[in-house]
């Protein structure tokens, strides 16, 4: 079974969303975009125990806490605004079709829609498949002053007056949905609370051990008083004082200590799973085994469940990378992809992201009206699957999760431009928002000819794109590839980044850097004389040194030694354009002083444009 479509209305940070899935789905995007909300929505509809909570939802589960309309006239009652979440499930197994046959509809995968009543004759596989729709409706009940929620079959033709048939808990269990909320689930995964992973395993296997009855009997017969001789006289005194007000007819002691309240539910919450991780260690509660070990134990339980129900396990899993090393992250991702019917995973880890194909990866965004939008990475042109896999760990995934990307052509620029950005951000903190906070990342395209395809890829994913690369004689058609791929396209006027540094950094700064390389023995094969050459000679040595040690980051080191006013204007002019696209948010106006009248104040002026510390000279192509 697979979830094909999810629709959300008025739930948490989402005003509206309609998402389509085709098997395994990796959900990526910035924080607070709605990744966890999607998993929670699936759990509300499919989780067999989710609606057992009281209340099943609360005020802030409604978008902007809006669960009642404003009365249109005085004296009119407010109308509840419901949460509505609906899923369409396809690839139904025989048991679901037998037990839910009256609710089956038909789905057109190519057109991603349900068939209408007049199209039933066209319901021919494989072009058309059977499906079931389930929807959860949650609302505030003014009469009871409480929140209510229930799951229904969206298609209930046998119900009177358009009513919908509720979905029983045992039917929900047939869909095999399990939601792993990162560490929050791990903290109770091996408990015996209802809905825990261990409880799910026992129910799936149909285990009825008589555990609770036997445990309660043994605990009831446990004589705690015998092990607490100093406590017993105090208890007897309490019992005598109690008898003055409440006569007891018990032939023996009227009071007794027990280790628990001796109910099944209480035992479920107190019974704990212990584990020993080494030869010299006694058994300890599993929560004390370490976060990484805990998550690995959870993975073991998930694999157990998947093997018990190989044809109907749907996992929703938040950030499997938390507190586990890269090789375990890859194992978790591979397990979910290979052993589950369908998996929904949220992640920020390149080791997880790289295991999913581009067509399985959905980048989420949210518009100004709180509608969630999803772009499939495979829908972005310009980048082949092999390139995606190759560059996944080299910054591609980091850029995908941001709002903007600066594409450079080589490792030298990749290290050098962030130095200039950081220097300016530190110098102008009241004007500039750091690029990292703005969601802007740098990306090394490994050659200027690769830049257009990455620019196209990022731009079609909705990111602001910027380029910075060397001057090369190009045809008009070839140059158009760059201007079409980037919002701001910067071809600087030099034939190499080393030439840019040599021409725009003051000669004295260059020579001081070269002398330090020579005196510390770090110059390698670059000959640096004892006497300073003329200006052109210094430039020539600088270019040779930087060109010969691109991977050593010498260009970035040289820029670190520059005074702020001496940073290359070609770079600073380019970065000013980037900062303009991601302006620093305005500070709120100061609070009025206590006791002072709140005088009307004009809003503060917008941040002034960044004034460069020296004019840009007429640059020559070098």
From TrEMBL:
GO terms for molecular function: endonuclease activity. Residues 1-62, 221-353 form the Endonuclease GajA/Old nuclease/RecF-like AAA domain. Residues 403-470 form the OLD protein-like TOPRIM domain. Transmembrane segments: none annotated. Residues 582-622 are annotated as: Disordered. The keyword Hydrolase applies. Keywords: Endonuclease, Hydrolase, Nuclease. Residues 610-622 have a biased composition (Low complexity). The keyword Nuclease applies. InterPro entries: AAA_GajA/Old/RecF-like, Bact_Antivir_Def_Nuclease, P-loop_NTPase, TOPRIM_OLD. PANTHER family: ATP/GTP PHOSPHATASE (PTHR43581), ATP_GTP PHOSPHATASE (PTHR43581:SF4). This is ATP-dependent endonuclease. It comes from Herbaspirillum aquaticum.
């Amino acid at each position: 079974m697979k979830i094909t479509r999810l629709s959300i209305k008025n739930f948490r940070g989402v005003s509206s969303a309609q998402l389509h899935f085709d098997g395994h789905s990796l959900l990526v995007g910035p924080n607070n975009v709605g990744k966890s909300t999607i998993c929670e929505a699936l759990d509300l509809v499919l989780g067999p125990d989710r609606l057992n909570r009281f209340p099943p939802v609360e005020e802030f589960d409604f978008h902007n806490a809006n669960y009642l309309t404003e009365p249109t006239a005085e004296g009119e009652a407010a109308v509840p605004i419901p949460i509505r979440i609906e899923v369409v499930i396809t690839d139904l197994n025989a048991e679901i079709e037998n037990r839910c046959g009256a609710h089956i509809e038909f789905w057109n995968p190519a057109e991603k829609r349900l068939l209408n009543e007049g199209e039933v004759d066209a319901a021919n596989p494989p072009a058309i498949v059977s499906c079931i729709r389930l929807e959860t409706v949650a609302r505030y009940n003014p009469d009871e002053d409480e929140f209510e929620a229930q799951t229904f079959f969206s298609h209930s033709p046998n119900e009177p007056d358009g009513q919908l048939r509720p979905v029983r808990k045992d039917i929900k269990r047939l869909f095999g949905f399990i939601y792993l909320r990162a560490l929050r689930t791990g903290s109770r995964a091996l408990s015996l609370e209802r809905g825990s992973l261990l409880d799910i395993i026992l129910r799936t296997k149909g285990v009825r051990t008589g555990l609770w009855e036997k445990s309660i009997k043994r605990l009831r017969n446990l004589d705690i008083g015998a092990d607490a001789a100093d406590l017993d006289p105090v208890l007897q005194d309490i019992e005598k004082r109690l008898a003055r007000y409440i006569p007891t007819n018990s032939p023996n002691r009227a009071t007794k200590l027990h280790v628990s309240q001796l109910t099944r539910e209480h035992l479920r919450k107190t019974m704990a799973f212990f584990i020993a991780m080494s030869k010299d260690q006694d058994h300890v509660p599993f929560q004390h085994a370490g976060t990484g070990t805990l998550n690995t134990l959870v993975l073991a339980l998930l694999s157990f469940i998947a093997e018990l129900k190989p044809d109907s396990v749907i996992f929703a899993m938040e950030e499997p990378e938390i507190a586990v090393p890269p090789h375990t992250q890859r194992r978790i991702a591979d397990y979910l992809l290979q052993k589950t019917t369908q998996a929904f995973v949220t992640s920020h880890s390149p080791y997880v992201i790289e295991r999913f194909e581009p067509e399985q990866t959905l980048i989420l965004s949210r518009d100004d009206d709180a509608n969630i939008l999803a772009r499939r990475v495979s829908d972005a042109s310009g980048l082949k699957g092999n390139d995606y896999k190759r560059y996944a760990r080299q910054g591609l995934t980091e850029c995908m999760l941001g709002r903007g990307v600066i594409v450079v052509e080589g490792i030298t620029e990749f290290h050098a431009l962030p130095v200039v950005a950081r220097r300016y951000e530190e110098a102008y903190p009241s004007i500039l928002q750091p690029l990292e906070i703005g969601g802007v990342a740098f990306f090394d395209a490994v050659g200027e000819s690769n830049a257009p395809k990455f620019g196209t890829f990022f731009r079609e994913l909705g990111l602001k794109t910027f380029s910075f690369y060397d001057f090369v004689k190009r045809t008009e058609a070839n140059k158009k590839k760059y201007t079409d791929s980037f919002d701001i396209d910067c071809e600087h006027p030099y034939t190499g980044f080393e030439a840019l540094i040599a021409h725009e950094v003051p000669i004295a700064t260059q020579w001081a850097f070269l002398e330090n390389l020579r005196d510390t023995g770090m110059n390698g094969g670059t000959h640096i004389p004892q006497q300073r050459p003329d200006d052109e000679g210094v430039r020539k040595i600088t270019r040779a040194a930087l060109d010969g040690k691109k991977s050593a980051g010498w260009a970035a080191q040289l820029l670190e030694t520059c005074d702020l006013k001496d940073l290359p204007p070609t770079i600073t002019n380019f970065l000013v354009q980037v900062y303009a696209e991601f302006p620093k948010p305005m500070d709120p106006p100061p609070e009025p002083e206590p006791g002072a009248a709140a005088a009307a104040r004009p809003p503060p002026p917008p941040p002034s444009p960044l004034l460069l510390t020296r004019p840009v000279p007429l640059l020559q192509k070098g």
